[in-house]
């Protein structure tokens, strides 16, 4: 099996469609059974492109002798398309269930799992729409996971009880912690929920996205003092320097560069700052530290 997979992998890496098709047709003819062919195509996520190309081929040729694998997949793709086109939730779920069955029959468990997860998301979004905490009566069905969280987090300005609902939603769909932090920070800052943002920043000593994300979100909303407060909590000197530069706090950035005796940081301040006084201080420090003669 190794030589077949190597040929498939190399053809995909080449990005040459003709070569990929040649390899696929060779495998289809050479492998002992369609089950073996399915097994190869299902071993690696990168082979999904190969599945799609075979599907396109059998759709275009409308071959009456198309293997059941491609018939099932083509029908499942149509079900998926229907689930996106219809606005009726029950029709969406029915179409996705049909797609799940067909992907399972085609022995494409990864595709089936994705369809199942979409069903679960739609059902959970429907439940959230009916929650009394959804005070703005937001329509959530059909949104992405991130946009669902973002909308509810923004509305937590009017109903704080939405915050634990979002946390439970994120846990259910295994949202990476860093992604959750970034979505929540941005949503709270955009709606000026400064107390909630501060409370959130206190949950972990070292947030997964760092305090820089808090500072930048505040700055984007015109809250420079809030941004400076979060910058003061950054422990990594490199991250703190980058944030100070981002906030145009060149005087503080200069003092940090001098303290660290870092010529690159000193040069960054000198090149980016338009304040003559700070530039002169940077030049003087460079000479005193022996970076220039």
UniProtKB/TrEMBL annotation:
One of its GO terms (cellular component) is HOPS complex. One of its GO terms (molecular function) is actin binding. Residues 1-277 form the Vps16 C-terminal domain. Pfam families: Vps16_C. InterPro entries: VPS16, Vps16_C, Vps16_C_sf. One of its GO terms (biological process) is endosomal transport. This is Vps16 C-terminal domain-containing protein.
């Amino acid at each position: 099996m190794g030589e077949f997979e190597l040929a498939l992998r190399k053809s995909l890496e080449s990005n040459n469609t003709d070569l990929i098709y040649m390899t696929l047709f060779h495998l289809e003819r050479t492998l002992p059974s369609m089950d073996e062919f399915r097994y190869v195509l299902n071993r690696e996520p990168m082979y999904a492109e190969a599945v799609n190309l075979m599907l396109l081929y059998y759709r275009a040729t409308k071959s009456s002798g198309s293997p059941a694998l491609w018939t099932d997949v083509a029908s499942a793709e149509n079900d998926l398309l229907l689930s996106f086109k219809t606005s009726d939730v029950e029709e969406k779920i029915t179409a996705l269930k049909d797609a799940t069955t067909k992907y399972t029959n085609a022995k494409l468990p990864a595709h089936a799992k994705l369809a199942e997860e979409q069903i679960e998301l739609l059902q959970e979004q429907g439940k959230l729409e009916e929650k009394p905490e959804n005070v703005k009566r937001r329509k959530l069905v059909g949104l992405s996971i991130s946009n669902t969280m973002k909308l509810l987090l923004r509305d937590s300005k009017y109903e704080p009880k939405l915050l634990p609902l979002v946390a439970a939603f994120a846990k259910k769909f295994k949202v990476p912690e860093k992604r959750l932090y970034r979505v929540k920070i941005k949503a709270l800052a955009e709606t000026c929920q400064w107390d909630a943002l501060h409370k959130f920043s206190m949950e972990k000593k070292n947030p997964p996205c760092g305090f820089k994300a808090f500072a930048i979100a505040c700055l984007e909303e015109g809250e420079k003092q809030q941004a400076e407060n979060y910058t003061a909590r950054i422990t990594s000197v490199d991250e703190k320097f980058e944030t100070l530069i981002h906030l145009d706090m060149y005087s503080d950035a200069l003092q940090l560069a001098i303290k660290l005796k870092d010529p690159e940081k000193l040069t960054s301040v000198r090149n980016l700052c338009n304040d003559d006084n700070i530039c002169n201080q940077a030049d003087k420090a460079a000479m005193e530290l022996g970076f220039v003669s």
